[in-house]
């Protein structure tokens, strides 16, 4: 079972980098749309921040599962063709998506409640 889980982690690694970029884009868009919320409303930044938090929690859980399996999950943002290795652990990526997502989520949900009353 342990080997099966390690194989699944290995097969999922090519999908991790696009998930980081999607989560990062969600954070950036939620911040921009929150700043422009006077014109666009708070619903879209709220949903984008929720999506970023989901990606953040996913990376934190993937870090925990990897550690339970004896691996140290990380993503290489360097260029392997030039032997450039910039390894970032999953927990760092998870927190980088979760914290700003939570801040924007709390601000937008607070503003939506204030706007409705």
Structural class: mainly alpha
Give the topology string: H per helix, E per strand: HHHEEH
Total beta-strand segments: 2
Mean residue pLDDT: 88
Strand order of the largest sheet: 1-2
Helix share bin? over 70%
Q: Could you tell me the strand content as a percent range?
A: 5-15%
Output the number of helix runs: 4
Task: Give the CA-CA distance, first to last residue.
Answer: 53 Å
Question: Uncertain segments of ≥5 residues (pLDDT<50)?
Answer: none
What does the largest sheet look like?
2 strands, antiparallel
Rg calculated over all Cα atoms: 17 Å
State the domain count: 1
Shape: elongated
Q: In terms of topology, how is this protein built?
A:
Layout: H1 2-35, H2 37-40, H3 43-68, E1 74-76, E2 87-89, H4 90-116
Antiparallel strand pairs: 1-2
Helix pairs in contact: 1-3, 1-4, 3-4
Description:
By secondary structure, the protein is mostly helical. The protein has one domain. 78% of the residues lie in helices and 5% in strands. It has four helices and two strands. It has a two-stranded antiparallel sheet. α1 crosses α4. The chain starts with a helix and ends with a helix.
Please tag this protein with its features.
single chain; 117 residues; mainly alpha; 4 helices; 78% helix
Compact description:
By secondary structure, the chain is mostly helical.
């Amino acid at each position: 079972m342990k080997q099966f889980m390690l194989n699944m982690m290995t097969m999922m690694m090519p999908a991790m980098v696009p998930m980081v970029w999607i989560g990062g884009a969600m954070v950036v868009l939620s911040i921009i749309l929150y700043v422009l919320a006077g014109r666009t409303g708070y619903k879209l930044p709220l949903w984008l921040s929720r999506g970023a938090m989901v990606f953040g929690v996913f990376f934190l859980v993937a870090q925990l599962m990897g550690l339970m399996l004896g691996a140290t999950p990380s993503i290489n943002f360097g260029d392997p063709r030039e032997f450039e290795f910039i390894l970032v652990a999953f927990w760092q990526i998870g927190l980088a998506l979760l914290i700003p997502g939570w801040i924007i989520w709390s601000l937008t949900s607070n503003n939506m409640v204030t706007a409705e009353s």
